[in-house]
Amino acid sequence: MFNSTHTLVGLAIARTGLDRWLPYAIATAVIATNLPDIEIITGLASTPTYIEYHRGITHTFIGIPVLSLALALGIYVFSGNFWKTFLVALVVMATHPALDYANTYGLRPFLPFDGTWYYGDTLFIIDPYLDLMLLAGFLVGYRLSRIRRLSAWVSILLTLAYIGIRIDLHAKARGQLASYTSTLPGFERSAVFPRIANLRIWDGIIETNQEMIKVRIDTRHGVDSELARMPKGASSEIIGHAATAPSAATFIGFARFPVIRVEGTEFGYRVTFIDFRFYNETTGTAFAAEVLLDQSLHVIRDSLGFNKAVTP
After folding, report:
1. Are residues 70 and 94 in the same domain?
2. pLDDT tens, 180-232?
3. Residue 216: domain span
4. Do 66 and 7 share a domain, yes or no?
5. 241 and 227 in one domain?
6. In the chain, which residue ranges form alpha helices assigned H by DSSP?
7. Does some domain include residue 191?
8. What are all long-range contacts of 135-142, with beta carbons under 8 Å and residues at least 24 apart?
9. pTM of the entire structure?
10. Does residue 90 sit in the same domain as residue 13?
């Protein structure tokens, strides 16, 4: 989730009464709810490095307690109570991977033992409704201090109710997509993704043995239109050599619905690895890795990015 959501969740939890129970509880909660994203500094090295480490060890069952312990050691100097500080940090920080799991990007909670990605596909990474509910609770409590605790609890309960509605609608959309794919030749798997600020319309991704298909799902009526379609691409020696490039190797470990294209160039080949999950048919962009090879299949250059232009 976006860090505005994480911050507002931390504020809401702290203002339920923890700020009376522990000095510096609000500061502890706000830092704790954002601290797992400390690996964002890996982006200073390169995009592949960032993708490799983002939502990695700091978002795991091991990383969260360790980060909470480190934060408690730092805040203890001011709060004067290590165990209370640790408990607040642990509870609040645990909401970070829980919320991140809820969106399409996913996370790897069992690192370093298992690098499998898990996806909730329920909340868009930026959810203005969540932020508005939490922000409203904070502002009401700020203006009316006598009901500050109540406003925090109400905003949390509304947030949980909203997420519950999202989960129910996601399940409904998945059922509608399953009905649509039940007679689709060569069907292999599918997923349903949320749209920003839209509870009714969802995106469905379908993988067959030949291609990827993106459809629009209206939870009132079911699948109502096809948005995009791409051949998956067959494996080849060219693709095998391109896959050894750092950007491609990182892409392969991250991609959920990969599409691979090979084009001839005047100097050799261009191989594009596309994650159809992040393909935007309106802008013609996607999360993709591009690898340039010479005639001898040696890597000349490679790159990775979230907004690379790709042709449909």
Report:
1. yes
2. 999 999 999 999 999 999 999 999 999 999 999 999 999 999 999 999 999 99
3. 184-231
4. yes
5. no
6. 3-13, 19-21, 25-34, 47-53, 63-79, 82-101, 128-143, 148-181, 237-242, 246-254
7. yes
8. 135/8, 137/12, 138/8, 138/11, 138/12, 138/15, 141/15
9. 0.93
10. yes
